[in-house]
Design brief:
four-stranded antiparallel sheet; globular; Jelly Rolls; Beta Polymerase, domain 2; 4 domains; alpha+beta; 14% strand; CBS-domain
């Protein structure tokens, strides 16, 4: 093998001696167009590395007739899984005259045993490979400690006082131990008292220093588990506007994590944006805070922050921006209505600002004469904050997306009866609804109506799930794009079938969570999916989202003006990224086949 190809991943995982052994033990073979290099269900005597030409990967049992699932070009490796598992799942056929390096199976297995990292690479799950990619990227290692840090690693021992202790006792305790909060047990549940609670109670609340601690305690705790990621604690603080979380284990407090603890692990940039949002007293200030989000996104990605954490944090910040706008624009007496966001916002998977997808749920007896005028103003406000209008008019300025609970019930039943038309699109949008302001119980009740109507209707679910087959998985474009600058549409070919497939299963299983990752966890709990497959689907979604985001950030700076934002150019990816993308697309292809069987889409 020429030195240039040995410098590609995963061969860089080999020791110098193993690389020399590999170079000495390989052959070079020539194949004509149409030759079958390795057939499905057959064992392989070699692992193949394409030197020149291209090889198609064919699924001979594909149910939808789309047998070609991949193309391997110069530098790509195939056949390793066949050697490790004893037989090949796919057929590999030459698309043109092709030269391949042949690694004898015995030599390949010897190298896998000799160089542990090399062998592990071929046996890894997609999740493990994705972690390796994160570690190799610039900045990923510098944050590795933070990304893997758990809450238990930086929590402080809780200070617990009896509920009949006085406010004076609490002040003395805070000073003695140098802490900012104490916990107390009230009626079998724990509550928290912070410095701010004491100051407010003593100075503005009319309390005396001899009053019981329970008189100023906050009973609604924001909690985390010891094994949660520390980044999760930061997201909770942002979402709930608090500076600490209480760590619980078996219904007992075992620690407290302060904001200062988290910021010692992580740049304060994200919390600064959160503070600016909370301090905003008018729309101009809120707009300025909103404009900082793209810089925050770039900072997070540059520092190697894992995609799911970035999505969680940005969803919390975007939610707070919309909630603040709602508080500023909508009259206070109407805040009992429920403002919902849908689409990627509802799933918490929006990174860069996308089209508005929102609606309003009113109580059946809510009196709001100026509802439409106020809703129009809210839509205009979001425009000034950088949220573009929805082409499909899924906005509160459209009366179709504003209504009482009874009106929403009628719409759901009407939409569900229009399985082949606009109704199905509307149901798909509503399934992802998430409350960002107002009374969340209104959405809970509407969601129950949605589940009661749709979750047990097999005919409806078949129509609902069918769009996953609308777009082919773009594996056949690897190495064979005639116009590589056009890229592949990662949204249509990869993200959509994955997200919508999980959405369909969540609807069928009456899962209330809206994010794809949370839905996958609940599907595992419900016994509808194996844990390992769900984990790999989650990693695939993160990979697709990250590749798409990186390209969109390039577009943001004018570096990729000729390529649509949902497209990525395979040829510009590193060999490891390309390998991961191929694995992830294979996973989507498998998922589509599972969904076809589950929802009987082949009929």
């Amino acid at each position: 093998m020429i030195e240039q190809e040995l410098n590609h991943y995963p061969f860089t995982l080999l020791s110098e001696a193993s690389r020399h052994r590999l170079n000495q033990g390989m052959d070079l073979a020539y194949f004509e167009k149409g030759d079958i290099i390795l057939d499905a269900a057959c064992s392989s005597d070699h692992v193949f590395v394409v030197h020149k030409g291209s090889v198609a990967e064919l699924d001979v049992n594909a149910p939808d007739g789309r047998s070609q699932v991949g193309v391997y070009a110069a530098g790509d490796l195939f056949g390793a899984i066949s050697v490790l598992n004893g037989k090949s799942r796919y057929r590999f056929r030459c698309e043109e005259q092709t030269l391949c390096h042949l690694i004898p199976a015995k030599l390949f297995l010897e190298l896998c045993d000799r160089d542990e990292e090399f062998g592990r690479y071929f046996r890894q799950t997609l999740a493990e490979k994705s972690q390796r990619l994160a570690e190799r990227r610039e900045g990923g290692v510098t944050l590795a400690g933070f990304m893997l840090a758990r809450v238990e690693q930086c929590m402080r021992e809780p200070t617990i006082m009896p509920p009949d202790a006085s406010l004076r006792d609490a002040v003395e305790t805070l000073k003695r131990y140098g802490v900012d909060s104490v916990l107390t047990e009230m009626d079998g549940h724990f509550a928290i008292v912070t410095k701010t609670d004491l100051l407010t109670g003593l100075v503005m609340g009319g309390h005396s220093a001899d009053d019981a601690l329970s008189s100023v305690a906050e009973t609604k705790l924001v909690t985390a588990l010891p094994e949660d990621y520390l980044f999760t604690a930061l997201t909770l603080m942002t979402r709930h506007k608090v500076a600490r979380v209480v760590v619980m284990a078996h219904d007992q407090p075992v620690g407290v994590v302060e904001l200062t603890d988290v910021l010692s692990f992580f740049s304060s940039r994200s919390y600064v944006v959160g503070l600016e949002i909370e301090k905003a007293e008018d729309l101009d200030a809120l707009r300025m805070a909103s404009e900082r989000l793209p810089d925050l996104i770039q900072a997070l990605m540059a520092q190697g922050v894992k995609m799911r954490f970035a999505m969680d944090l940005l969803a919390a910040l975007n939610g707070r921006i919309m909630a603040k706008a709602f508080e500023m624009v909508i009259p206070a007496e109407q805040h009992s209505a429920c403002l919902i966001v849908m689409g990627s916002e509802g799933r918490g998977e929006q990174i860069l600002k996308t089209d508005q997808d929102n609606g309003l749920i009113l109580g059946d007896h809510q009196d709001w004469p100026r509802c439409q005028q106020d809703a129009n103003q809210f839509t205009e406000t979001l425009l000034t904050l950088g949220y573009p209008p929805c082409p499909g008019k899924v906005m509160v300025s459209n009366p179709q997306w504003v209504g009482t609970q009874s009106q929403w019930r009628e719409r759901i039943y009407d939409w569900a009866g229009d399985a082949g038309g606009e109704g199905m699109i509307h149901i798909t949008t509503l399934v992802d609804a998430h409350c960002v302001a107002g009374s969340s119980h209104l959405l809970d009740e509407v969601r129950t109506i949605l589940f009661d109507r749709c979750s047990d209707d097999d005919v409806f679910l078949r129509h609902f799930a069918r769009p996953i087959l609308q777009f082919a998985t773009p594996l056949n474009l690897f190495g064979s794009l005639k116009k590589p600058q056009h890229g592949i549409d990662i949204k249509k070919g990869a993200l959509f079938p994955l997200v919508h497939g999980v959405r369909a299963m969540a609807l069928q299983c009456r899962i209330k969570e809206t994010s794809t990752l949370a839905r996958l966890e609940k599907l595992v709990e419900a016994g509808a999916m194996e844990a390992r497959f769900a984990e790999d689907l989650g990693e695939a979604m993160e990979l697709f989202s990250e590749l798409r985001l990186n390209h969109q950030l390039e577009n943001l700076h004018g570096d990729e003006m000729n390529i649509p934002g949902n497209h990525i150019v395979v040829q510009k990816l590193s060999s490891l990224e390309r390998d991961l993308l191929r694995d992830a697309l294979h996973l989507v292809s498998d998922f589509k086949q599972r969904l076809s069987r589950r929802f009987h889409l082949e009929y």
